[in-house]
Amino acid sequence: MKFVYHSSEVQGIKVFIPTKSTHGVEWVYATRERNISCLFISGLGGDFTCQVGRDRETGKPYVCERFHGAFDLRYENKKGSIYTLLGDYFKENMTGWDEEVVCDRTVYPCYEEKVSEARRFLLELYRNNKLIIKYFPEKINGIPPNNEDLVKKAVIWTRIHGDRVLKKVDRYHPGLLDRVERGLREGWYR
User: What's the mean pLDDT in 60-79?
Assistant: First the structure.
């Protein structure tokens, strides 16, 4: 990989230092493709607001609302930057997501593309047929109608990261909280 991409709400970053990740390892995260990376200009709510990924049928990046208004909540009035990094030391297949690459070294950006408003930027990609946006209640890539995927993530992530995950569930999907708590009590998804 000649170049990889890292997006952030923070503009003007001069150096990326590996930090402890959700995987328990110190890494700098990036993606192989700019249009996947730009979905992370805002990470507000993570998968609990908008699911992001690559559509199996078209191969295009997508963002899928998990509740009405989630796209605007996550991206409207959010600024950030897409950083281009040399891909020399980034490794593939180190996480559970094919789009993600990681590096255990300090990385300096080659280029910073500033984005003044993430929602407008993503809508432009959509208009140019480079991104799929699914607005709730539409789903993509087999996301189950009962949101069992979010229940599973919440149960697993609560075991790893503690009650802050339950607070996210309560904030964005209060109707799933009972199922998540039951899953924790009954040992689901081990």
Answer: 97
Q: Which two tokens stand for residue 159?
A: 């075991």
The amino acid present at 25, given as its one-letter code, is: V
For residues 81 and 109, is the Cβ–Cβ distance under 8 A?
no
Asked if residue 123 lies in contact with residue 38, where contact means CB atoms within 8 angstroms, the answer is no
Map tokens 């963002």 to a residue.
63
User: Greater confidence, 56 or 109?
Assistant: 109
Q: Which residue stretches of 96-162 are H helix?
A: 118-127, 148-161
Which residues lie below 8 Å from residue 118, measured CB to CB, with a gap of 6+?
A: 38, 41, 42, 75, 76, 78, 79, 80
Whether the model clears a pTM of 0.70, i.e. scores above it, the answer is: yes
Task: Report the alpha-carbon distance of residue 77 to residue 143 in Å, rounded.
Answer: 27
- 186: amino acid identity, one letter: E
Question: Which residues touch 90 (CB under 8 Å, ≥6 apart)?
Answer: 1, 4, 30, 101, 102, 103
What residue spans define the domains of the chain?
3-134, 148-186
